[in-house]
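Page 42, continued from yesterday. The earlier attempt failed because a stray header line got pasted into the input along with the sequence. Redoing it now with the clean sequence only.
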Amino acid sequence: MLIIGLAGGIASGKSFVATEIQRMGAAVIDADLLGHQVLMMDEVREKLVIEFGTQILDSRGSIDRKALAALVFGGDSDARHRLRKLEEITHPRIESLVKEQLRAYRETGFPAVVVDAAVMFKSGWNKWCDRVVFIHCSEKTRIERALQRGWTKEELQKRESNQFPLDQKLRLATDVVNNNDGVEPSLAEQIRALWVKWGLGEKKTPQKSTD
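This time it went through. Structure tokens are written below.
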């Protein structure tokens, strides 16, 4: 089973690439979704409240992800320290779930699995991957897409400053696709070309997902 990691800037199109590779017959592991699951764990909630206080809870006593994000991406002098604390609590648990899903997909016979994780390099998960696809997208286009999501340019830049630098992601990638509209062949075409390049053949029908 080929393990494919995704890399790129925020709003570069990683989710679209993951979906296209899934259409070719791969399974997908969404680390962001697993992160949401981890925040629902009682032990994680308790540790985060001890670290950050009840200000991160919503009216039901659950983790308010927007309030938590405001603390760790706030841009003040202590934000990076708070982000490190959050990662120390959550990343080992997310990693455990990613590995668990990788084992399950290997057993069910998928030809490939995509690991979609913003912290791919920061957490060292690229070491598990046979291929790492970097999605190249201009900053202008990414800002436009972030604005459409309701983000500000400043919020995107703050979040991206806490990720692995884009030039280093590109250098560590094994494959590159371009997602600048109207310049290159369609992203779907580029993904199909990679599928063939990786020796996975044409589109396959996957077995039932273990999700």
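Notes: The two ends are 17 Å apart (CA to CA).
Reminder to self: strip header lines before submitting.
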